[in-house]
Amino acid sequence: MIQIAHIETPFKTKFGVPRQAGLTEYEARVVFEPEFRVAEAVRGIEEFDYLWLIWQFHLAERKEWSPTVRPPRLGGNKRVGVFATRSPFRPNPIGLSCVRLLRVEPGPVLVVQGADLVDGTPIYDIKPYLSYADSHPEARSGFAQSAPPAALSVADPEGLTDALPADLCNALCQSLSQDPRPHYQEDPDRIYAMLFDRWEVRFRVADGTATIISVKKC
Amino acid sequence: MIQIAHIETPFKTKFGVPRQAGLTEYEARVVFEPEFRVAEAVRGIEEFDYLWLIWQFHLAERKEWSPTVRPPRLGGNKRVGVFATRSPFRPNPIGLSCVRLLRVEPGPVLVVQGADLVDGTPIYDIKPYLSYADSHPEARSGFAQSAPPAALSVADPEGLTDALPADLCNALCQSLSQDPRPHYQEDPDRIYAMLFDRWEVRFRVADGTATIISVKKC
User: Which of A54, A86, A195, B196 has the smallest number of CB atoms closer than 10 Å to its CB?
Assistant: First the structure.
């Protein structure tokens, strides 16, 4: 399996990355590796609203596989079969994400929305989304029937995120509202730090609110 | 990338395999490789109506990749970018199919419907279908906006397919009606042979009708 592209997103570390595709609205860029920078390879792709990205969970590789995992959606304390989840910890660390294609820029670069990938994630394949074969709106989807509701309110009493461009500010708030904390962490004094685009964002969580306490350029 | 499972389907060769998932109704069996025959690994999977199979185009590997391909849906004479198609001939020979989960049998074996895979195809990963993230019924899908219409009528004047079980007979007719011939073949005298389950099925195509001329057990 060879890397054909990688993605550029504001999420510089796993912490804060949305836990599924389509949950945030920032623009990400799929940049082909030099061998695949051929305009013809994406000819006609703009006729599709959505694309599949098949990619490598490059930060989640483990030597051994576990038959069961504990999905965050189940509170992190119930085990289900790994093939009944989209967990990154699976025998082959392959990720699958449906993203919206916004436009094709010269390069070619595919500008997409809704990616749930950490910055720099290697991409193995890009396929067009075919609604007749891929869309099953009525499908029962087990413990993840609907998108996770916003778990937290986001407070920025000092207006610290004014430093960020509007679209990034929006994406940051979406990420925080989905509660990026590991499960079982309920310490209101704990300070979390997230590398987001060129900023280090620090926040606390108490009483269902994530409060931003610093935004520093790094 | 390791093979975790393989699929058992009636399509013994590439010829006749449906060109996308969901177009036929036969039952296929996803059989785990010995190391992955662990019941817990699929615990909870029956709560999902559909599954993603990520698999290897093991009969379509080529040393060189081509930036453009000619999809059958466009008549086989128009080139589009490989990443704007689901063609098997791509830099990484990875296939992606959404199949319906019918039931889980001991093994575990996943019995699925709608697979577009040749018998014995290696499977790399199985993921649950999440309707909130994966379903976009309104998506523009370029040259493949809707399922291909049945291209051929199927005639069996001698009742030869009576030898097959009803579900296989149905799947065979669905496959033939989708016109499995390579493009540009319009010779009414040519006899095509297809290995289907334990049968060799021979047919001719003329005037929009596929006529079955022999069904032999092999």
Answer: A195
**Backbone torsions φ then ψ of B45, nearest 5 degrees:** -70, -25
Contact A91 B54 (CB under 8 A): no
Q: What pLDDT score does B120 carry?
A: 98
- As for the ipTM of the complex, it is 0.94
Structure tokens at B21: 């998932």
Q: What's the confidence (pLDDT) of residue B184?
A: 64
Name the least confident of A77-86, A100-109, B57-66, B95-104. B57-66
Segment 103-162 of chain A within 8 Å of chain B by CB: 124-147
Name which of A126-140, B62-76, B80-94 the model is least confident about.
B62-76
Instruction: List C-alpha distances in Å: B139 to A48, A188, A203, B52, B146.
Output: 7, 43, 37, 19, 11
Q: Does A89 touch chain B (CB under 8 A)?
A: no
Helices (H) and strands (E) in chain B, counts: 2, 12
Contacts of A22 in chain B (CB under 8 A): 132-133
Residue B28 β-bridge partners: B112
- Nearest CB among A36, A81, A128 relative to B40 is that of A81
Given CB atoms, is A79 within the 8 Å cutoff of chain B? yes
- Best of A38, A47, A83 to mutate (most B CBs within 10 Å, chain B): A83
pLDDT given for residue A60 in this prediction: 83
**Which residues of A are less than 8 Å from B49 in CB distance?**
136, 138-141
Give contacts of A139 with chain B, Cβ < 8 Å: 48-50, 129, 131, 135
Q: Which chain A residues have a beta carbon less than 8 Å from that of B22?
A: 132-133
Which pLDDT does position A62 carry in this prediction?
80
Shortest distance between the Cα of B118 and any Cα of chain A, in A, equals 18
